[in-house]
TrEMBL record:
InterPro entries linked: RT_dom
Reverse transcriptase domain location: 1-90
Protein name: Reverse transcriptase domain-containing protein
PANTHER family from the UniProt entry: REVERSE TRANSCRIPTASE DOMAIN-CONTAINING PROTEIN, REVERSE TRANSCRIPTASE-LIKE PROTEIN WITH RNA-DIRECTED DNA POLYMERASE DOMAIN
Length: 238
């Protein structure tokens, strides 16, 4: 919001995945109706079985239990409390614990696979594999609302993943092993991912992203710039 002008985004699309956003059930129904009309006029058909709706919890308020039916092509949609969109797990309370746990499990699987299949490889090869498959931390740049416990659990898993890949003792020094291998530790990796997001947003030609990046005092840019600084960790106590 700026200069008395409020910009609302009602639709986010990528390939054949679409998300509709509305402040009310009535508004959502109107958006769905527009989609149905477009699909009918262009020979398209939405998959009702894969379509769901979620009501986000407003700050300081609980989600309503009784909600009028929301239908797509005459079929009532299922209400869910979490939904995975483009690999990122969204929840009704807008917290990131579930997505962080998803990434923690995925990291464990990748690290154990590398440790088993490449146990006899050289240290250099193992470090290269770890960097390639264990440091991406998919969608971590979007995490903004999480507890200190969730953050710590993921950091421990990241350290254990490196120990497993390198065949190191379970309780060896985390800072020492990363320094010896000249590889980014968990905090350094998270900072780089946040910086990468800021750089890509600022370089984008998309008008919405340009509006966001143009506000240096905006929440998203400020959050990424302050991410993982020791005295400014955006952690919550739940």
């Amino acid at each position: 919001m700026g200069g008395g002008l409020c910009t609302a985004m009602g639709c986010i699309s990528y390939a054949d995945d679409m998300v509709l956003l509305s402040a009310s059930v009535c508004g959502l129904r109107k958006l769905i109706r527009k989609c149905e009309e477009y699909a009918c006029g262009h020979g398209l058909l939405y998959n009702v079985r894969k379509s769901q709706y979620m009501i986000f919890e407003a700050a300081g308020a609980k989600c309503p239990d009784n909600v009028p039916k929301i239908k797509l092509n005459g079929v009532p949609l299922e209400r869910v409390k979490q939904f995975q969109y483009l690999g990122h797990l969204l929840t009704f309370d807008l917290r990131d614990h579930a997505d962080m746990d998803r990434e923690r499990r995925a990291l464990s699987v990748r690290a154990n696979m590398i440790a088993r299949r490449f146990a006899r490889c050289s240290k250099e090869v193992k470090v290269t594999l770890f960097r390639a498959f264990c440091t991406s931390l998919y969608s971590c740049s979007l995490w903004a609302n999480y507890s200190r416990k969730s953050y710590s659990v993921l950091r421990v898993q990241y350290n254990n993943a490196f120990r497993a890949v390198m065949g190191l003792p379970r309780f060896c020094s985390a800072s020492g092993m990363f320094a010896d291998a000249r590889t980014d530790c968990f905090n350094a990796t998270m900072r780089k991912r946040a910086a990468s997001l800021v750089r890509r947003v600022r370089a984008s030609s998309n008008t919405v992203l340009a509006m966001i990046s143009g506000r240096l005092d905006g929440y998203i840019i400020r959050h990424c710039c302050e991410r993982h600084v020791a005295d400014q960790l955006p952690l919550r106590k739940y």
